[in-house]
Amino acid sequence: MAKALLALxxxxxxxxxxxxxxxxxxxxxxxxxxxxxxxxxxxxRGVAFSMFAFLAEWLKWIQLVLITGVLAxxxxxxxxxxxxxxxxxxxxxxxxxYDRFIHGGVVDMVYxxxxxxxxxxxxxxxxxxxxxxWLLILNLRPKMCKNKVI
Length: 150
Known about the structure:
This protein is an alpha+beta fold. Helix content is 57%, strand content 13%. The protein has a four-stranded antiparallel sheet with strand order 1-2-3-4. It starts with a helix and ends in a 10-residue tail after the last helix.
């Protein structure tokens, strides 16, 4: 139980710290322009592809409720195999919500424009995707998730 909670907490803190340190580089002026990828500073006032930007200040509170719900659900399930992907998901989500409180929007910086224009995103966005895929795999293949409880 304690090991799973520690894994959840360490992955949460680790992702939060890594993401915030990367964002600090761009807030301090780092930029790179390449053939396929530009590293630039953009503030996203919405979520993916700037959706729901019309929610303005409400968006950060809605996201906090959703993140709290994910944490409560993971604790309710009490399956140790969910600890690390849940920690990654929650840490990345909290990092983006933190940006909303501090900067008024999520600090994004990776702009893919090779062959097609893609949304500008950040490390936390990638980690959210990784965690969601990981959790989907665990749910679609229940044998991978032993019944160790948190």
